[in-house]
Amino acid sequence: MAKSLNPHASGKPKADEPTAQGHGGEPPRRNLLVATLAAAIGGFVGLFPVGAGMALFLNPLLKKKAAAGEGDDKLKRVATIESLPADGTPIQVPVIADKIDAWTGEPNQPVGAVFLRRTSDNKVECLNAICPHAGCMVSYSADRKLFQCPCHTSSFELDGKRILPSPSPRDMDGLVVDETKLASGEVWIDFVNYYPGKEHQEPKA
């Protein structure tokens, strides 16, 4: 019988000849690493539009938080000591601040009112002018020397203590006067509005 002259007739591949598995099997490790790295970079880059969108969405909320501020940014200038009667008569003054409501902001808007009373050359008492009963604006009666609510007849002493019996669940809300600025002749207060109708103070957001 004649021998075949074809060197591949035996069916065994040469040592340096690539096998079918080398072409059609799993990809080499380098290709797998490159594909994984590309997917990771693509996912990271895709986060930038999402982050930018979230920043745009939260921006008004961040501005509102910044407007509330901390430290001196929370204080509101309402008067000077010289503008207050030396005999201790309370006067009502507006509180002016930048008003931010969700997505809009208006500078220098009235956000409330307070009563200021000069008790000595270096001390000032401050009361929120809102009645703690139902949120009406309290007025001062010079004849009776007390505060009165025109809505439901609540009455308060000069220091804000309610006169019993009273529909108001608590005294008038006292506010902090900054002693450092008061020493320089200016009245700055930490202005807070509280929810009416509650026995204990609960500040509004």
UniProtKB/TrEMBL annotation:
Residues 92-189 form the Rieske domain. Residues 1-28 are annotated as: Disordered. It comes from Pirellula staleyi (strain ATCC 27377 / DSM 6068 / ICPB 4128) (Pirella staleyi). This is Rieske (2Fe-2S) domain protein. Pfam families: Rieske. PROSITE patterns: RIESKE (PS51296). Keywords: 2Fe-2S, Disulfide bond, Iron, Iron-sulfur, Membrane, Metal-binding, Transmembrane, Transmembrane helix. One of its GO terms (cellular component) is membrane. GO terms for molecular function: 2 iron, 2 sulfur cluster binding; metal ion binding. The keyword Transmembrane applies. The keyword Transmembrane helix applies. The chain crosses the membrane at residues 32-58.
